[in-house]
Amino acid sequence: MLATRKFMQRKKKEEVFKDAADEAEQMNWRRMMREIEEAGSAVPILKTQRSGKGPLPRDVILGTLVRFKQLKKWNIVSEILEWLRTQHWWDFSEMDFLMLVTAYGKLGDFSRAERVLKYMNKKGYQPSVISQTGLMEAYGRGKQYRKAEAVFRRMQTSGPEPSPVTYQIILKSLVEGDKYKEAEAIFEDLLNEKRTSFKPDQKMFHMMIYMYKKAGDYAQARKLFAQMSERKIPLSTVTFNSLMSFETDYKEVSSIYDQMQRAGMKPDVVSYSLLIKAYGKARREEEALAVFEEMLDAGVRPTRKSYNILLDAFAISGLVDEANTVFKAMRRHRVEPDLCSYTTMVLAYVNASDMNGAEKFFRRIKDDGLKPNVVVYGTLMKGYSKLNNVEKVMRVYERMRIQGVEPNQTIYTTIMDAHGRNSDFGNAVIWFKEMEARGYPPDQKAKNILLSLANTPEEQQEANELVGNGAIQLEVKPDNEEVDDDGHEVIHTDAGSHRLLDDTQTRNHVNGRIRAGNYTFDEDDNDDDDDDYEEEDDEEFNFVSFKDKRELNFAS
């Protein structure tokens, strides 16, 4: 099970250098890049590379800028460019200004973007599509959505004419700001506009499909998918991934997966993970494992997120041995488990009603240098609540508070649930009021628990007054536990779902070899926006959360 494939084994690549001097230069540059990444700041490191008062070699500067641009470390890019503005030995050109505006756009720092554009205007540089798109993006990422749209409309009426990248960014900004009508209007105008030299491309369709998914309008999303074929917009793995993400039934997800393969598209790590998630939610662990093995056989390297999804497929059914096998395989395959992985293992023991095992794994979290959060404590509390052990529930709560971890709404509801299982109306009322006092509006489950415990007329009156529900008795479903769209365990109530696992995201920073004689920077060189719909998050796909800023990243 989960045997290591050849492609997962590290092989040292032999590099060929021109000569000893070239090798020394490359090794020095890589060492400098590592130091910058470790320090989180570039200028102090770059200053040490200067010999006396002489300038730094141009190819070192350009190579460093290009590499951090590729890594999307725009804070370091902007830091280097701002420093270069003050250096007499560097000719700060219009291209440098444009990259600086773009960096501030990616960072959402509209104040600095405005200041740079004002300076460029003073120096006689004409507004360009790059500078205006950068400013528009800065407003969008800075949540100034009206200003972002105003810049876009000004470009439409007065120029410079918006480019496809401009349209991609304004659509992304509006969708992230839940400005669905505005985004839809821009997209429809582009579909019907005869003056423009281009029509909506694949990325724009993907963004709009994603918007309808986010808005819960699956019918419109599917309609848009059909339009892609009608308009001869090329379909891609990303397109099918977006369709798979809509579905909750594993049969539908599997059907779309098969359709993708019939269309000649190769599944990527996102495709496999979505299918694994669907099987896991349906408690079809064998199929989930088979898909994971298929992914390995296809030479697709699993991400930490995909391991966590497979781990969760076993955890929700309390299959501890299988979950442990996956957990060990992560390290064997050089994928370091994160807090989400550990929490899922605790959940596996909880669902197997093995609280001794859960406590042992909880201690491993600290032993391995991680800090348990409210989700881990909540998972333990839920386990003891299921066993009707109120004393242990409260002990875990006290441990959590001693460690300085603040409770959330789910914690209070779990405590109420524990008292509810023991028919303790008085304590349930106390924790209901505590939840309100802490600023957490009681959810439907908490209200249901309180109402179900009220037996006497006086208790019923008090419960109804607290929940503001008249005399309506609601059904309590304390044990209806499923997995949310993140592949994480949740407790479903009439009011919604409570997540029991955090999203922990990872980034892979790779130092590569850059030979830069000069860099070109034009408006189409915007690789940061290649379907980066999940916010600057994610080289990894955030598989399952489509709420707030945890949305689907169509670029796997």
UniProtKB/TrEMBL annotation:
<feature type="repeat" description="PPR">
    <location>
        <begin position="303"/>
        <end position="337"/>
    </location>
</feature>
<protein>
    <recommendedName>
        <fullName>Pentatricopeptide repeat-containing protein-mitochondrial domain-containing protein</fullName>
    </recommendedName>
</protein>
<keyword id="KW-0677">Repeat</keyword>
<dbReference type="InterPro" id="IPR050667">
    <property type="entry name" value="PPR-containing_protein"/>
</dbReference>
<feature type="domain" description="Pentatricopeptide repeat-containing protein-mitochondrial">
    <location>
        <begin position="77"/>
        <end position="189"/>
    </location>
</feature>
<dbReference type="InterPro" id="IPR002885">
    <property type="entry name" value="PPR_rpt"/>
</dbReference>
<feature type="repeat" description="PPR">
    <location>
        <begin position="373"/>
        <end position="407"/>
    </location>
</feature>
<feature type="repeat" description="PPR">
    <location>
        <begin position="268"/>
        <end position="302"/>
    </location>
</feature>
<dbReference type="Pfam" id="PF23276">
    <property type="entry name" value="TPR_24"/>
</dbReference>
<feature type="repeat" description="PPR">
    <location>
        <begin position="408"/>
        <end position="442"/>
    </location>
</feature>
<dbReference type="InterPro" id="IPR011990">
    <property type="entry name" value="TPR-like_helical_dom_sf"/>
</dbReference>
<feature type="repeat" description="PPR">
    <location>
        <begin position="93"/>
        <end position="127"/>
    </location>
</feature>
<keyword id="KW-0809">Transit peptide</keyword>
<feature type="repeat" description="PPR">
    <location>
        <begin position="128"/>
        <end position="162"/>
    </location>
</feature>
<dbReference type="Pfam" id="PF13812">
    <property type="entry name" value="PPR_3"/>
</dbReference>
<feature type="repeat" description="PPR">
    <location>
        <begin position="201"/>
        <end position="235"/>
    </location>
</feature>
<feature type="region of interest" description="Disordered">
    <location>
        <begin position="514"/>
        <end position="544"/>
    </location>
</feature>
<dbReference type="InterPro" id="IPR057027">
    <property type="entry name" value="TPR_mt"/>
</dbReference>
<feature type="repeat" description="PPR">
    <location>
        <begin position="338"/>
        <end position="372"/>
    </location>
</feature>
<feature type="compositionally biased region" description="Acidic residues">
    <location>
        <begin position="521"/>
        <end position="541"/>
    </location>
</feature>
<comment type="similarity">
    <text>Belongs to the PPR family. P subfamily.</text>
</comment>
